Amino acid sequence: MDPAKDQESQPQAVVVRREPERELVSWSAPARPFKRRDKQFFVTVFAMAGILGLVLFFAEGFMPVLLIIALVFLYYVLSTVEPERIEYKITSKGIKIGNNLTSWSFLNRFWFTKRFDQELLVIDTGLIPGRIEMVIEPSVKEKITKEISAYLPLEEVPASGIDKFTDWVGKKLPGNS
């Protein structure tokens, strides 16, 4: 009898251990970057939207004008209402924002950026909308980098054409220099 053949013929038991979720890093921050805008900024935005709306009205009709009005209203609301503070957690299972968990298997890479003088952690995902952006406290940036690096590479994605265009338009508005 050959012991190697006996081991091949008998099925081997596989033990799967379920690891409990462990919290690696936790912090509380605003739900989105925020910068309060002044009257001059909104006068400029409304004037630009009005001119664009007039041109589109003559070219395409009333529907594009409704779209512009809706987008300007959304931007106005997001620029005047301060975001709530929420709890962010990095766990052994993934990224938890509030009570919503995104598993590590859906996340690709991460990097840091700044918007409105606030540090942001950006994570590229395989899900729609494609990115998760979280406001972070500067005091936890090193710990976040250390913990996420065990699961994802620190690699910034180059800016797309839309990103470059929105940055260019943003720099042309007053108060965004």
Explain what you see.
The protein is an alpha+beta fold and 177 residues long. The chain is 38% helix and 25% strand. It has helices spanning 3-9, 39-60, 63-80, 141-149, 161-172, and strands at 23-30, 85-91, 94-97, 100-103, 107-115, 118-125, 131-135. It has a four-stranded antiparallel sheet, covered by helices on one side. It has a three-stranded antiparallel sheet with strand order 5-6-7, with no helix packed on it. β2 and β3 form a beta hairpin. α2 packs antiparallel against α3.
Provide key terms for this protein.
elongated; 177 residues; PH-domain like; alpha+beta; 4-stranded antiparallel beta sheet; 3-stranded antiparallel beta sheet
CATH class, please?
A: Mainly Beta
Number of domain modules: 1
Count of beta strands: 7
Roughly what percent helix? 25-40%
| Nearest-integer average pLDDT | 83
Give the strand content.
Answer: 25-35%
The shape, in one word, is elongated
Could you describe the largest sheet, including whether it forms a barrel?
A: 4 strands, antiparallel
Q: Give the ordered list of helices and strands.
A: HEHHEEEEEEHH
Radius of gyration, taken over Cα atoms and rounded to an integer in Å: 24 Å
What CATH architecture do you see? Roll
Low-confidence runs = none
| Spatial strand sequence of the major β-sheet | 1-2-3-4
Which class of secondary structure composition applies to the elements? Answer: alpha+beta
Number of helices: 5
| CATH fold-level assignment | PH-domain like
Q: Calculate the terminal CA-CA distance, rounded to whole Å.
A: 82 Å
